[in-house]
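Purpose: get a first structural picture of the assembly so the mutagenesis plan has something to point at.
Setup: two entries, given in the order below. No constraints added.
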Amino acid sequence: MKHAILTALLLATLGACATSPRKEASMRRFGIVIHGGAGTILRSEMTAELESDYRRALGEARDAGYAVLQRGGGAVDAVVAAVKVMEDSPLFNAGKGAVLNAAGDCEMDASIMDGRTRAGGGVAIVRRIKNPIDAARLVMDKTSHVLLAGTAADDLARSHGLAIVDPDYFKTERRLQQWRKARELEQRKQSTRGLHERVSDLAGDPELRVGTVGAVALDQAGNLAAATSTGGRTHKAVGRVGDSPILGAGTWADNRFCAVSGTGHGEMFIRTTAARDVAAHVEFQGMDLDQATRAVIKNIESVGGDGGLIAIDRHGNIAMNFDTPGMYRAFRLSDGTTSIAIFD
Amino acid sequence: MKHAILTALLLATLGACATSPRKEASMRRFGIVIHGGAGTILRSEMTAELESDYRRALGEARDAGYAVLQRGGGAVDAVVAAVKVMEDSPLFNAGKGAVLNAAGDCEMDASIMDGRTRAGGGVAIVRRIKNPIDAARLVMDKTSHVLLAGTAADDLARSHGLAIVDPDYFKTERRLQQWRKARELEQRKQSTRGLHERVSDLAGDPELRVGTVGAVALDQAGNLAAATSTGGRTHKAVGRVGDSPILGAGTWADNRFCAVSGTGHGEMFIRTTAARDVAAHVEFQGMDLDQATRAVIKNIESVGGDGGLIAIDRHGNIAMNFDTPGMYRAFRLSDGTTSIAIFD
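Result (C-alpha cells, whole complex):
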C-alpha cells in the first residue's frame, strides 16, 4: 500500500455541564465520510473542469449527509442522503451514470447496514430503481430478508412507491464510450483464446474499473451506519453480483466497532470479506481504523485485488485508505474538520 | 448454545520414514464432514423409516466425497461430489427437493471456496441447473467473477454443458405440502397486518425452515475446501438470496485456517459473516474449531438467528456445532473415525 493515508481524530470537546438536551446533543461528536470510487481516473486524464465538477458533487453529497446529522437525524438517514446525491449525479458509477454490462445494460447493486441493530439490506442486479440505495433500505426495513436480486427487487421497490425509471435513464454517453472500448478489448482477447477464458475476463481490467459510491456516518446518538451503491464493472457478465450489495464484503456497520464502505475490485472484496474484516481487526486485534483498513487492503492485494476503504468509529475517528492512484473522497466532522480529495 | 457439540481429533500418525510417494500420501491425514441442514425436523416427527433414509443418504454423500480424497483427489472435487449426492436426493433442501418460494418456484443458491487460492464461486436464484454446486464451481473456475445471479447463471451453465432440467424436476410432493402450509400461515398473517410487514415475513418461521446442504474437506495434499447448496426457505420472497451463495456468510475456506459451511437462518448468517468469522476466531484469537463455531453461533443468536456450522482445519480437526434440535451430519476421517447423526 503505497499511497495516501488519512486519518483524522475528532477532537470535539464534550461539555461536562451541558444544561439542555439541545445543547448536549449539539456538542456530541458526529460526522460523515464518503467515497465516489477508487482507481477510476489518472491524474493525467483529469481536466480542471472535470475535477471541479467532481469536487462540487462530492461536497454536495457529503453535505447532504452532514445536514441530516447536524439536525439530529440518524446515521442511516445520513448515509442514504449522501449516497443518493452520488446516485443522481452522472459523474459516479451508481444510479445515473452506472456502467454498462456485457449486454449494454445497467445492472446495479447496493446495500446498507445499521450499526445499532446490525440489520442490513441489499439489492443486486436491479435495472429500474432510480435510487438503488432506497431499495436496499426497503429490504432492511420492510422485509425479513437481507438481499434481493433481479426483477423481484425492482418489483418490490415499485410496490412500495419508490421512484422507477426507464432503464435508459441510467445510461450516459461517457459510459457508452467505455463500454465500446471494453467490447473491443474483449473481442481482441476472444480472438486469441478459448471459450473458457472468455467469460467476462475484462472485469478485472484496470482500465475499465469505474468505482462505486459509499458513505459511513456517526450520528449524535452514537449510532453508526454504512451504505454502498454501484453499477459494477464495465462489460461485466450479465447477472454478475459484486461486493457492494453484500454485507461484510462492501458494507459493514456495528456500533461497537465501526462502519465501513469499500470500493475496488469487488470480487476480491468478497473473497476477503473486506468490510467485515476491518471491523474484525478492530474487534479481535484492537487495531485503530487506519491500521485495520491498511491490513485489509494488504489482504485484498494478496489475492490480486486493489481498491479503497472508508471507515468511521464510535469515537468519530475516521480512515480513508486506498492503494489505487486515487479515490474520490470527502468528509465533514462536527469539530469543523472537512476535506474533499481525489488523488493522494 | 444448548445442544450437541462434537469435536473429533484426527490422530493419524504421520510416518516419519515413508519410503514411496504412494505410501507417504496414504499416510497423510484427510477427511470430510458434511451437513444436510439444521433445525429441520423434530425427533417426534421422525419415523424409523425416514430416519433410515436420511442416514443412508448422508452416508452415501459422505462416502462419495471421501472416495475422492482416498484416491488422492482434491478437496474441491470431494466437497462437490458429496454435495451433488445431496442435491440429487429428494430428502434435502438443495437441487431435487428444494423448497418452493412465495410464487411456488424453486430458486436455488450455491457456493464453493478453494482454500488453496481463496478463490470462490457462487450462483444465486438459479432455476434450471440440475446441480447448482457445479455451476458455482464453473463461476470459480471459468469466469473472473465470484457470484452470478438469475437466468444469466442458468445460461452460463448451459453454455458450458452442465445438465439443465425443467424447473418441475426440483419439485416434490413434500415440498408442495410445506409450501401450502406456509401460504396458509402467510394469508392468516396478512389478514391481521399492513402491507409493510407482509413481505416474506414467514421466512423466519421455524416451522418452515428446511436447511441446506454442505461439505468441508481436507485432502491428502493439505488443501481445504468448502461447498454449500440450498433451495432457501419455504415461501421466501422471489429473488431472495440467502447466505449459501455468499463467501464469508455460508461458505469459507482458507488453507491456513479452516473450511466452513453453514446451515440455518441465512439472513442472520449474512449479518454475522458466520463462515468467515469461524476462521477469523481461529486466525485472530487462536481459538480451536469447537470454540470458534460456538462463538459464531452465539453471535448468530445475538441477532435473533440459529443454525449450525461444520468445519475442518488443516490438521484434520473437525467441529459440528448447532443450537437447533438437530442437524443432519456425517464425517469420515482417514484415521477410521466416522459417524452419521441427526439429533443431539
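Chain A touches chain B through 53 residues (CB under 8 Å).
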